[in-house]
Specification:
With 278 residues, this protein is an alpha/beta fold. The protein folds into two domains: 221 residues, Rossmann fold, CATH 3.40.50; 34 residues, no CATH class. Helices cover 43% and strands 14% of the residues. It has eight helices and seven strands, in the order βαβαβαβαβαβαααβ. A seven-stranded parallel beta sheet has the order 3-2-1-4-5-6-7, with helices on both faces. Helix 4 links the parallel strand 4 and strand 5. Helix 1 runs parallel beside helix 2, helix 1 crosses helix 8 and helix 3 runs parallel beside helix 4. It is globular, with a radius of gyration of 18 Å. It binds nicotinamide-adenine-dinucleotide.
Protein backbone atom coordinates (compact mmCIF):
# COMPACT_ATOMS: atom_id res chain seq x y z
CA UNK A 1 0.00 0.00 0.00
CA UNK A 2 2.96 2.29 0.59
CA UNK A 3 4.68 1.72 -2.75
CA UNK A 4 4.27 4.38 -5.41
CA UNK A 5 7.42 3.51 -7.37
CA UNK A 6 7.44 5.26 -10.76
CA UNK A 7 3.91 6.56 -10.35
CA UNK A 8 3.39 10.13 -11.59
CA UNK A 9 1.44 12.31 -9.18
CA UNK A 10 -0.10 15.73 -9.92
CA UNK A 11 -0.73 17.95 -6.89
CA UNK A 12 -2.30 21.41 -7.20
CA UNK A 13 -1.49 24.07 -4.59
CA UNK A 14 1.84 22.38 -3.98
CA UNK A 15 3.89 25.34 -2.75
CA UNK A 16 3.23 24.76 0.93
CA UNK A 17 0.82 23.35 3.51
CA UNK A 18 -0.94 20.09 2.75
CA UNK A 19 0.12 20.12 -0.92
CA UNK A 20 3.76 20.08 0.15
CA UNK A 21 3.38 17.22 2.65
CA UNK A 22 1.53 15.17 0.00
CA UNK A 23 4.28 15.85 -2.57
CA UNK A 24 7.12 14.86 -0.25
CA UNK A 25 5.32 11.72 0.97
CA UNK A 26 4.69 10.48 -2.59
CA UNK A 27 8.29 11.24 -3.60
CA UNK A 28 9.63 9.38 -0.56
CA UNK A 29 7.58 6.40 -1.75
CA UNK A 30 9.05 6.45 -5.26
CA UNK A 31 6.79 8.76 -7.30
CA UNK A 32 7.64 11.58 -9.69
CA UNK A 33 5.79 14.77 -8.86
CA UNK A 34 3.98 17.43 -10.93
CA UNK A 35 3.09 20.63 -9.05
CA UNK A 36 1.35 23.89 -9.66
CA UNK A 37 0.65 26.85 -7.44
CA UNK A 38 -0.66 30.33 -8.24
CA UNK A 39 2.29 31.88 -6.35
CA UNK A 40 0.55 35.20 -5.91
CA UNK A 41 -1.84 36.83 -3.50
CA UNK A 42 -5.50 37.65 -4.15
CA UNK A 43 -7.32 40.89 -3.29
CA UNK A 44 -10.18 38.69 -2.07
CA UNK A 45 -8.12 36.57 0.32
CA UNK A 46 -7.05 38.23 3.58
CA UNK A 47 -3.86 36.22 4.16
CA UNK A 48 -0.74 35.67 2.03
CA UNK A 49 -0.87 32.74 -0.41
CA UNK A 50 2.01 30.52 -1.49
CA UNK A 51 5.03 32.14 -3.14
CA UNK A 52 7.49 31.17 -5.87
CA UNK A 53 10.05 30.60 -3.08
CA UNK A 54 7.65 28.23 -1.31
CA UNK A 55 7.14 26.28 -4.53
CA UNK A 56 10.91 26.10 -5.09
CA UNK A 57 11.30 24.72 -1.56
CA UNK A 58 8.77 21.93 -2.28
CA UNK A 59 10.70 21.11 -5.46
CA UNK A 60 13.94 20.98 -3.43
CA UNK A 61 12.37 18.60 -0.91
CA UNK A 62 11.01 16.34 -3.66
CA UNK A 63 14.29 16.28 -5.58
CA UNK A 64 16.20 15.54 -2.36
CA UNK A 65 14.44 12.14 -2.37
CA UNK A 66 15.95 11.43 -5.81
CA UNK A 67 12.67 11.80 -7.69
CA UNK A 68 11.84 14.15 -10.57
CA UNK A 69 9.62 17.21 -10.21
CA UNK A 70 7.86 19.53 -12.67
CA UNK A 71 6.59 22.71 -11.00
CA UNK A 72 4.81 25.64 -12.64
CA UNK A 73 3.13 28.84 -11.59
CA UNK A 74 -0.49 28.27 -12.62
CA UNK A 75 -3.89 29.19 -11.25
CA UNK A 76 -6.30 26.25 -11.30
CA UNK A 77 -9.18 28.63 -12.07
CA UNK A 78 -7.56 28.94 -15.52
CA UNK A 79 -8.60 25.82 -17.45
CA UNK A 80 -6.04 26.34 -20.23
CA UNK A 81 -3.21 26.61 -17.69
CA UNK A 82 -4.21 23.35 -16.01
CA UNK A 83 -4.56 21.57 -19.36
CA UNK A 84 -1.12 22.86 -20.43
CA UNK A 85 0.47 21.49 -17.25
CA UNK A 86 -1.16 18.08 -17.71
CA UNK A 87 -0.04 18.00 -21.38
CA UNK A 88 3.53 18.87 -20.35
CA UNK A 89 3.59 16.24 -17.61
CA UNK A 90 2.23 13.57 -19.96
CA UNK A 91 4.86 14.52 -22.56
CA UNK A 92 7.81 14.60 -20.11
CA UNK A 93 6.84 11.90 -17.58
CA UNK A 94 4.65 9.77 -19.88
CA UNK A 95 1.42 9.93 -17.90
CA UNK A 96 -0.38 11.06 -14.75
CA UNK A 97 -1.46 8.14 -12.56
CA UNK A 98 -2.65 10.06 -9.51
CA UNK A 99 -4.11 13.56 -9.14
CA UNK A 100 -4.70 15.46 -5.91
CA UNK A 101 -6.97 18.50 -6.46
CA UNK A 102 -5.76 20.32 -3.36
CA UNK A 103 -5.44 24.04 -4.25
CA UNK A 104 -7.86 26.25 -2.37
CA UNK A 105 -8.36 29.49 -0.50
CA UNK A 106 -10.32 30.57 2.54
CA UNK A 107 -12.33 33.78 2.70
CA UNK A 108 -14.85 34.94 5.24
CA UNK A 109 -17.88 37.11 4.59
CA UNK A 110 -21.43 36.95 5.90
CA UNK A 111 -24.09 36.61 3.21
CA UNK A 112 -25.12 40.28 3.58
CA UNK A 113 -21.52 41.39 3.05
CA UNK A 114 -20.06 39.06 0.45
CA UNK A 115 -18.70 40.87 -2.62
CA UNK A 116 -19.11 39.10 -5.97
CA UNK A 117 -15.36 39.17 -6.44
CA UNK A 118 -14.87 37.18 -3.22
CA UNK A 119 -17.58 34.68 -4.22
CA UNK A 120 -15.92 34.25 -7.62
CA UNK A 121 -12.44 33.84 -6.14
CA UNK A 122 -13.56 31.13 -3.73
CA UNK A 123 -15.74 29.26 -6.23
CA UNK A 124 -13.04 29.68 -8.90
CA UNK A 125 -10.23 28.26 -6.78
CA UNK A 126 -12.11 25.76 -4.61
CA UNK A 127 -14.71 24.32 -7.00
CA UNK A 128 -14.02 25.27 -10.63
CA UNK A 129 -10.29 24.65 -10.10
CA UNK A 130 -11.05 21.15 -8.84
CA UNK A 131 -13.26 20.53 -11.86
CA UNK A 132 -10.49 21.75 -14.18
CA UNK A 133 -7.99 19.41 -12.54
CA UNK A 134 -10.18 16.31 -12.67
CA UNK A 135 -11.34 17.07 -16.22
CA UNK A 136 -7.77 17.60 -17.44
CA UNK A 137 -6.36 14.31 -16.10
CA UNK A 138 -9.39 12.14 -16.93
CA UNK A 139 -8.83 11.61 -20.70
CA UNK A 140 -5.27 10.28 -20.26
CA UNK A 141 -6.33 8.07 -17.35
CA UNK A 142 -9.22 6.67 -19.42
CA UNK A 143 -6.81 5.94 -22.29
CA UNK A 144 -4.50 4.01 -19.94
CA UNK A 145 -7.32 2.40 -17.93
CA UNK A 146 -5.89 3.47 -14.58
CA UNK A 147 -6.20 6.44 -12.25
CA UNK A 148 -6.55 7.56 -8.65
CA UNK A 149 -8.05 11.00 -8.05
CA UNK A 150 -8.52 12.69 -4.68
CA UNK A 151 -10.33 16.00 -4.27
CA UNK A 152 -9.96 18.10 -1.14
CA UNK A 153 -13.24 19.23 0.38
CA UNK A 154 -13.60 20.20 4.05
CA UNK A 155 -15.65 19.47 7.14
CA UNK A 156 -17.44 22.62 5.90
CA UNK A 157 -18.35 20.58 2.80
CA UNK A 158 -20.88 18.70 4.93
CA UNK A 159 -21.81 21.29 7.55
CA UNK A 160 -22.02 25.06 7.89
CA UNK A 161 -20.37 27.87 9.83
CA UNK A 162 -21.08 31.60 9.92
CA UNK A 163 -19.33 33.65 7.23
CA UNK A 164 -18.64 30.62 5.05
CA UNK A 165 -21.33 30.83 2.33
CA UNK A 166 -18.83 30.85 -0.54
CA UNK A 167 -16.40 28.38 1.03
CA UNK A 168 -19.23 26.05 2.06
CA UNK A 169 -20.88 26.25 -1.37
CA UNK A 170 -17.58 25.34 -3.02
CA UNK A 171 -16.71 22.51 -0.63
CA UNK A 172 -20.23 20.99 -0.72
CA UNK A 173 -19.95 21.29 -4.52
CA UNK A 174 -16.65 19.41 -4.53
CA UNK A 175 -18.37 16.43 -2.91
CA UNK A 176 -21.21 16.40 -5.44
CA UNK A 177 -18.78 16.69 -8.33
CA UNK A 178 -16.53 13.98 -6.87
CA UNK A 179 -19.38 11.48 -6.57
CA UNK A 180 -20.59 12.15 -10.11
CA UNK A 181 -17.04 11.91 -11.52
CA UNK A 182 -16.57 8.62 -9.64
CA UNK A 183 -19.49 7.15 -11.58
CA UNK A 184 -18.35 8.67 -14.90
CA UNK A 185 -14.88 7.14 -14.49
CA UNK A 186 -15.91 3.87 -12.80
CA UNK A 187 -15.77 1.82 -16.04
CA UNK A 188 -12.16 2.87 -16.66
CA UNK A 189 -10.22 1.67 -13.59
CA UNK A 190 -10.23 5.18 -12.13
CA UNK A 191 -11.32 6.02 -8.58
CA UNK A 192 -12.40 9.47 -7.39
CA UNK A 193 -12.73 10.20 -3.69
CA UNK A 194 -12.94 13.32 -1.54
CA UNK A 195 -11.17 14.05 1.75
CA UNK A 196 -12.87 16.36 4.23
CA UNK A 197 -10.23 17.82 6.58
CA UNK A 198 -10.95 19.54 9.87
CA UNK A 199 -8.68 22.34 11.16
CA UNK A 200 -5.26 21.61 9.70
CA UNK A 201 -2.13 23.46 10.87
CA UNK A 202 -1.17 25.39 7.73
CA UNK A 203 -0.88 29.10 6.82
CA UNK A 204 -4.55 28.98 5.75
CA UNK A 205 -5.57 28.91 9.41
CA UNK A 206 -2.51 30.33 11.19
CA UNK A 207 -2.84 33.94 10.14
CA UNK A 208 -3.97 37.21 11.75
CA UNK A 209 -7.14 37.42 9.69
CA UNK A 210 -8.51 34.08 10.87
CA UNK A 211 -7.33 34.59 14.44
CA UNK A 212 -9.18 37.95 14.59
CA UNK A 213 -12.31 36.42 13.05
CA UNK A 214 -12.30 33.73 15.71
CA UNK A 215 -11.48 36.08 18.61
CA UNK A 216 -12.98 39.51 17.73
CA UNK A 217 -12.85 40.35 21.45
CA UNK A 218 -9.01 40.50 21.44
CA UNK A 219 -6.70 43.12 19.91
CA UNK A 220 -3.95 40.68 18.86
CA UNK A 221 -5.12 37.09 19.38
CA UNK A 222 -2.51 34.33 19.49
CA UNK A 223 -2.70 30.64 18.61
CA UNK A 224 -3.38 29.85 22.28
CA UNK A 225 -6.29 32.33 22.25
CA UNK A 226 -8.00 30.71 19.23
CA UNK A 227 -7.43 27.09 20.23
CA UNK A 228 -10.50 26.71 22.50
CA UNK A 229 -12.79 28.05 19.75
CA UNK A 230 -11.21 25.98 16.97
CA UNK A 231 -11.38 22.88 19.14
CA UNK A 232 -15.17 23.24 19.40
CA UNK A 233 -15.45 22.53 15.66
CA UNK A 234 -13.97 19.08 16.27
CA UNK A 235 -15.37 16.23 18.36
CA UNK A 236 -12.08 15.21 19.98
CA UNK A 237 -10.30 17.64 22.33
CA UNK A 238 -7.78 18.92 19.77
CA UNK A 239 -7.78 22.31 18.01
CA UNK A 240 -5.51 21.56 15.04
CA UNK A 241 -4.37 18.45 13.17
CA UNK A 242 -1.09 18.15 11.28
CA UNK A 243 -1.05 18.14 7.44
CA UNK A 244 0.66 14.73 7.54
CA UNK A 245 -2.59 13.30 8.95
CA UNK A 246 -4.38 14.28 5.73
CA UNK A 247 -1.45 12.91 3.72
CA UNK A 248 -1.99 9.47 5.27
CA UNK A 249 -5.59 9.47 4.01
CA UNK A 250 -4.39 10.62 0.57
CA UNK A 251 -1.90 7.74 0.41
CA UNK A 252 -4.58 5.24 1.43
CA UNK A 253 -7.10 6.38 -1.18
CA UNK A 254 -4.53 6.51 -3.99
CA UNK A 255 -2.90 3.13 -3.31
CA UNK A 256 -3.17 0.61 -6.12
CA UNK A 257 -4.98 -1.73 -3.71
CA UNK A 258 -7.75 0.82 -3.03
CA UNK A 259 -9.27 -0.15 -6.38
CA UNK A 260 -12.82 -0.53 -5.15
CA UNK A 261 -13.11 2.52 -2.93
CA UNK A 262 -14.66 5.27 -5.04
CA UNK A 263 -17.26 8.01 -4.66
CA UNK A 264 -16.58 8.27 -0.94
CA UNK A 265 -15.79 11.12 1.44
CA UNK A 266 -13.10 10.41 4.03
CA UNK A 267 -13.09 12.82 6.98
CA UNK A 268 -9.82 13.67 8.74
CA UNK A 269 -11.43 15.95 11.27
CA UNK A 270 -11.09 14.71 14.86
CA UNK A 271 -14.69 13.61 15.02
CA UNK A 272 -16.47 16.58 13.44
CA UNK A 273 -17.99 14.08 10.99
CA UNK A 274 -19.91 12.51 13.87
CA UNK A 275 -22.15 15.57 13.84
CA UNK A 276 -23.23 15.31 10.19
CA UNK A 277 -25.74 12.90 8.74
CA UNK A 278 -23.63 11.44 5.96
N1 LIG B 1 -6.10 24.22 6.69
C1 LIG B 1 -7.33 23.82 6.97
O1 LIG B 1 -7.76 23.93 8.14
C2 LIG B 1 -8.20 23.20 5.93
C3 LIG B 1 -9.40 22.58 6.34
C4 LIG B 1 -10.21 21.97 5.40
C5 LIG B 1 -9.85 21.98 4.06
N2 LIG B 1 -8.69 22.60 3.68
C6 LIG B 1 -8.37 22.57 2.27
O2 LIG B 1 -7.11 21.97 2.09
C7 LIG B 1 -6.52 22.45 0.87
C8 LIG B 1 -5.08 22.84 1.14
O3 LIG B 1 -5.06 23.95 2.02
P1 LIG B 1 -3.87 24.22 3.07
O4 LIG B 1 -4.43 24.06 4.42
O5 LIG B 1 -2.66 23.45 2.69
O6 LIG B 1 -3.66 25.80 2.84
P2 LIG B 1 -2.42 26.67 2.32
O7 LIG B 1 -2.97 28.04 2.16
O8 LIG B 1 -1.25 26.48 3.21
O9 LIG B 1 -2.04 26.03 0.90
C9 LIG B 1 -2.87 26.20 -0.23
C10 LIG B 1 -1.96 26.43 -1.44
O10 LIG B 1 -2.82 26.50 -2.60
C11 LIG B 1 -2.40 27.59 -3.39
N3 LIG B 1 -3.56 28.04 -4.17
C12 LIG B 1 -4.68 28.63 -3.72
N4 LIG B 1 -5.53 28.87 -4.73
C13 LIG B 1 -4.93 28.42 -5.87
C14 LIG B 1 -5.30 28.38 -7.22
N5 LIG B 1 -6.48 28.86 -7.62
N6 LIG B 1 -4.44 27.84 -8.10
C15 LIG B 1 -3.24 27.33 -7.70
N7 LIG B 1 -2.83 27.36 -6.43
C16 LIG B 1 -3.68 27.89 -5.51
C17 LIG B 1 -1.91 28.63 -2.40
O11 LIG B 1 -1.04 29.58 -3.03
C18 LIG B 1 -1.21 27.76 -1.36
O12 LIG B 1 0.15 27.58 -1.67
C19 LIG B 1 -7.43 23.58 0.41
O13 LIG B 1 -8.30 23.12 -0.61
C20 LIG B 1 -8.22 23.94 1.65
O14 LIG B 1 -9.47 24.55 1.36
C21 LIG B 1 -7.87 23.21 4.59
Amino acid sequence: MDDFTDRVVLITGGARGQGRTHAVAFAERGADIVLCDRCEDSDDVAYPLGTAEDLAETVRLVEATGRRCIAVKANTADRAAVEALVARAEAEFGRIDIAIANAGVSANGTIDNLPSSQWEEVIGSNLTGVFHTVAAVAPGMIERGYGRIVTISSMLGRSAAPGQAAYGAAKWGVIGMTKSAALDLAPHGITVNAIAPGNISTPMVHNDSLYKLVRPDLESPTREDVEPVMQMLHGQPVAFLEPEEVTRAVLFLTAEASAHITGTVMPVDAGAAARVTA
